[in-house]
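Supplementary Text 2. Reproducibility record for the structural model of the 107-residue chain.

All settings were left at their defaults, and a single model was retained for analysis rather than an ensemble. We include the record here because the model underlies the residue-level annotations in Supplementary Table 4.
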Amino acid sequence: MKYQLVLQFTGTVIPDYDSLVDLESVLIEQIQEDGKATVDGHDFGSSQMNLFLTVDDPENVLNRIRGKIKHPLMERVRAGYRNVTDNTFRAIWPESLHEFSVKSIQA
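Retained model, structure tokens:
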């Protein structure tokens, strides 16, 4: 697996965080099972919540997540990915998104 896929949401309060942790559990149970994605954790801060996955094919995994996972946070997901050896993200969802960044990324 050579890409980091990030599912991103706005969030500032504890119920947002609880929902993020719940979605992370759902992803572990329903997406990680086939070995094409590994859920690597989450972060929360600066009005931004992120779920991190390591994948071989970011667009395919995102499409599977969007088609399979029914969770309230998925209605407001933004997504981007990067090669694990790079710090530059490429925006992939929604289609109108042109830039993507993760505030907590450290070089």
